[in-house]
Amino acid sequence: MTRTDDAPLRDPRLSIEQTRALLADLATLLGPERVLTGHDVLHQHGTDESFHAAAPPDAVVAPRSTEEAVAIVNVCRAHGAPIVPFGAGTSLEGHIAARRGGVCVDMREMNQIVRLSIDDLDVTVQAGVTRRQLEARLLPEGVFFPVDPGSDATIGGMVSTGASGTMTVRYGAMRENVLSLLVVTPDGELVRTRSRARKSSAGYDLTRLLIGAEGTLGLVCEATLRLRPTPEAMSAAVAAFGTLRQAVECVIAVTQYGIPVARIELADERQMEAFNHHSGLDHVVAPTLFLEFHGDPQEVAAQAAEVHRIAAEHGAIDVRTAADESDRRALWRARHQAYDAARSLRPGCRVMTTDACVPVSALVDCVLQTRRDLEETGLDGPIVGHVGDGNFHVTLLLDADDPEEVERAMGFHDRLVRRAIAAGGTCTGEHGVGYGKARYLEIEHGPAVVRMMRAIKHALDPDDLFNPGKIADATVLADEVKPAG
Amino acid sequence: MTRTDDAPLRDPRLSIEQTRALLADLATLLGPERVLTGHDVLHQHGTDESFHAAAPPDAVVAPRSTEEAVAIVNVCRAHGAPIVPFGAGTSLEGHIAARRGGVCVDMREMNQIVRLSIDDLDVTVQAGVTRRQLEARLLPEGVFFPVDPGSDATIGGMVSTGASGTMTVRYGAMRENVLSLLVVTPDGELVRTRSRARKSSAGYDLTRLLIGAEGTLGLVCEATLRLRPTPEAMSAAVAAFGTLRQAVECVIAVTQYGIPVARIELADERQMEAFNHHSGLDHVVAPTLFLEFHGDPQEVAAQAAEVHRIAAEHGAIDVRTAADESDRRALWRARHQAYDAARSLRPGCRVMTTDACVPVSALVDCVLQTRRDLEETGLDGPIVGHVGDGNFHVTLLLDADDPEEVERAMGFHDRLVRRAIAAGGTCTGEHGVGYGKARYLEIEHGPAVVRMMRAIKHALDPDDLFNPGKIADATVLADEVKPAG
Fold first, then answer.
1. CATH code of the domain occupying A233-341
2. What mean pLDDT, rounded, does chain A reach?
3. Which chain B positions have a beta carbon within 8 Å of A359's beta carbon?
4. pLDDT band at A267, cuts 50/70/90?
5. Torsions phi, psi of A238, nearest 5?
6. Do B260 and A255 make contact, defined as CB atoms within 8 angstroms?
7. To the nearest whole angstrom, how far is the Cα of B24 from the nearest Cα of chain A?
């Protein structure tokens, strides 16, 4: 594996002449009107929702079929041009920054639902289908797809970041809910990573390798997803606690009783203020759990009653149950607006989002230390958490024009990540590495693991064309990591 | 990736002098009494429970610590000796055959439970801990590990084959239940693939890559596993149907109602005869589902009642409920003895086990075609299935001294695998590839996927020392695949 480390870095960018030749071939393939090079469109496609510096590509193209996607990849290969897959642009660690230029492949025009099997409880969709589009299609069929990140991401993007969401505690993240992928490899070939069988032991798990690979190992064109039957009944509850410790200990108890909660989310006092402020609500301003129960009506009632009892035992000061379906939906709509709610506390602010995840037993100490650090550093940051998984986000509200405050926030973030890793956790529970977290990979995994990752990348993409400068390859460029200016 | 294909095959075996030098260094490391080279021990360690030809290693060593495991790997690396990890020897596709000689690393002396956290519902065990050993340790703690292959495999072996079992339909297989691995890499370094956090998006998923890698990418020393709280209540039922189609359609209906059955297993008429014969039972000889329900007492009763209703709607001719806990245990003990029961139908026979897995919607046709093929080919083979996952096994009962019958069985097996792949399924649902299924990898996945697998193998183990001649690398040796003589 030493070969990889010794390999010289390739030329960072195509020359002007090389780029011109690339664009000409793309125009021949797609027609000139489908090769976008305007300033605004390039800038938009190099910018995600993160705090990291954007980097526009040299061109944006949007394939309309798998055949076009294969052809685009092969044109890029012929020109040695980087390929940066693009979904909804909602990633949070600089995943879509075209750090070496090249071609942004915007997958949003490939948005067909290819095949739906209710008997097999699976669906095959093109990469550009969005989470909400899929939800709407599945609703009348009595089935749903349980991975729900906050934004309306594309399925291809969710595959590539290994997304999770509020229901992961019960139904798993993308890695547990993707059966198979159709991918254009760095060799320019179209492959299906796996059969549609529910289980398989037929060789290395390329599906899981590509999930969370952030477009560095291939271009995802289609995904086959596991579905779940829509529960007959659902109910929701909100429980406020005297202290954060009580709230988290309640979660541990609920888990140990084996109560299959569908959602169990934490918001701290500051986040509750944000919800009240943003949505005109009147929640108690205290550490709060948002819960949801799925099952048949008896099961849901039994789960809710048992959780009510456990919450009371753990010092809940206020427990409210959603009265009906519209109440339940309103509750989760509010929860999904955590980001916007937090922003509303400081109009015009710039947001930096953290993503630590630790073993649940370490969560209370980690969150309390984080809150203390926020106070000592003089920063404002509501906290929300997928607490059943030990994953929490601080939404730092910053004045981007104040370099000293930004500097303080960077220091805070660095301490937070190191604290999570020291507690047996990870620098990223669900947002991924992009280039924003690249410097932490070696701290978290050690150099040998990063060398393995780099060896895999080099073996599958020896010319380093697929989303270069991300994940393990980004570590060589770690000094370039800086906030947007 | 073409590099890999062009690479010459390395010398298949060490010379006698090279082997002598290897054994001397192992003896220096461990003491001569711990380097086993007796004929019987070598033969035993090169023989699994499959139909494939065994291949003894040149020596067997059993590390007692991770440090010793690292040192053994590095001695083997220094001598260019193949390393074949060994667990309980219960694999079914020739996984442990030392096809190029070398050192069998028997992990059974590394059988400590390293750390157990009830708060986090996880446990870290050494690779040599067996499934039943872990079960016994967890029982008094009120938690369990839900992956239960038929044999008393080691956890390291279960990791390496990507094992599943009767509860996979509810709780997932190894890929859904392993958090992290401690592994000696082909570079001779000790790495932990991942943190202990419940979720992570921190780079390529090396954990899942190593699960099912069958020892070809490293030596698994420890695994950190997710646990589940023991359900408050469990109950079991057996439902016999007029036809196989009715039984499978009942399963599809149960799944679509979202009833979280913990187990739902199929046995065909011939397998039911075997159970009755072997265990002195009096089951109706008809296609039968074995079911188990987990939850609190109300949930379990409600699930059982609903499944009873669905089974009746689908033509169940006899439904029995396990009266109490000992009845429930007896029922599953019988189910777990399917293999021995089948063998008892033809004393002295030799067994060939198949492992096809198809989308559930294709299962009825696939099983019916398989049964017809059995009849037309004049073979005896009871069928059991993890039917909720679409996975079924034919236990072919053969006279090993009759080469013509063996030949017919090989032909039957080949047709079965191709039928499963054509139906959107896989050649192996849970037994793995070893070298027995190697010829089907390209048929199932296409050549580009096999090239990717080979490129990953070559990147991580460029000298091809870890369990050579298995999975994708076995395809180059496919003509060597033959039944034991």
1. 3.30.70.2190
2. 93
3. 117, 119-120, 122, 196-198
4. very high
5. -130, 125
6. no
7. 28
CB proximity list for B304: less than 8 A, separation 6 or greater: B235, B237, B291, B293, B321
Does domain B233-335 bear CATH number 3.30.70.2190?
Answer: yes
Q: Where in chain A is the domain with CATH 3.30.70.2740?
A: 342-422
Contact status, residue B374 vs residue B432, Cβ threshold 8 Å: no
Tell me what the mean pLDDT of segment B10-36 comes to: 93
In chain A, CATH 3.30.465.10 sits at: 110-229
Return the H-helix or E-strand segment holding B155: helix B155-161
The reply to whether residue A195 touches residue B229, judged by beta carbons under 8 angstroms, is: no
| pLDDT tens digits, one per residue of A124-147 | 999 999 999 999 999 999 999 999
Helix ranges (H only) for B267-399 are 269-279, 297-313, 325-336, 338-344, 363-377
* Main-chain phi, psi angles of B33, to 5 degrees: -70, -15
The topology (CATH level 3) of A342-422 is: Alpha-Beta Plaits (3.30.70)
Residues 6+ apart with CB under 8 A from A309: none
Q: Which chain A residues are within 8 Å of B199, Cβ to Cβ?
A: 164, 168, 173, 357, 386, 389-391, 426, 429-430
How far is the alpha carbon of B424 from chain A, nearest alpha carbon, in Å? 6
The chain A residue lying nearest B474, using CA atoms, is A203
Structure tokens at B423: 């139906």
Q: Where in chain A do CATH 3.30.70.2190 domains reside? A: 233-341
Which residues in chain B are contacts of A122 at CB distance < 8 A? 359
* Cβ pairs A/B, distance under 8 A: 310
Helices (H) and strands (E) in chain A, counts: 19, 17
Within 13 Å and on the Cβ side, how many CA atoms surround B324?
Answer: 1
At residue B293, what is the residue type?
F
pLDDT at A481 over 80: no
One-letter amino acid at B142 equals G
| DSSP 8-state symbol, A230 | P
Closest to B435 in 3D by CA, of B377, B407, B396, B476: B476
A238: β partners: A290, A320
Contact B229 A421 (CB under 8 A): no
Q: Do the chains contact at B1 and A459, CB–CB below 8 Å?
A: yes
Query: Which residues of chain A neighbour B175 with C-beta distances below 8 Å?
Result: 175, 205, 208
Mutate to test the interface with B, among A117, A147, A187, A204 (most CBs of B within 10 A): A204
Test A258 with B390 for CB contact under 8 angstroms: no
- A353: part of which helix (H) or strand (E)? strand A350-353
Instruction: State the nearest Cα–Cα gap between A444 and chain B, in angstroms.
Output: 8
The CATH number of the structural domain formed by A110-229 is 3.30.465.10
> Are the C-beta atoms of A366 and A423 separated by less than 8 Å?
yes
pTM here is: 0.95
Chain B residues close to A252, C-beta within 8 Å:
119
Verify whether the Cβ–Cβ distance B389 to A198 is below 8 Å.
yes
- Contact criterion met (CB below 8 Å) for A152 and A132: yes
For the record, the structure tokens of A209 come out as 């390798």
Contact B198 A391 (CB under 8 A): yes
Give the mean model confidence (pLDDT) for residues A255-266: 93
User: Is B172 in Cβ contact with A360 (below 8 Å)?
Assistant: no
Alpha helices in A36-150 (DSSP H): 39-45, 66-79, 131-138
Report the side by side order of strands in the sheet with A103-106. Answer: A59-61, A103-106, A83-86
> A301-340: per-residue pLDDT in tens?
999 999 999 999 999 999 998 878 888 888 888 888 899 9
Report how far Cα A230 is from the mean position of its chain's Cα atoms.
24
Kindly determine whether residue B162 and residue A426, on different chains, have CB atoms separated by under 8 Å: no
The closest of B137, B121, B165 to A259, measured between CA atoms, is: B121
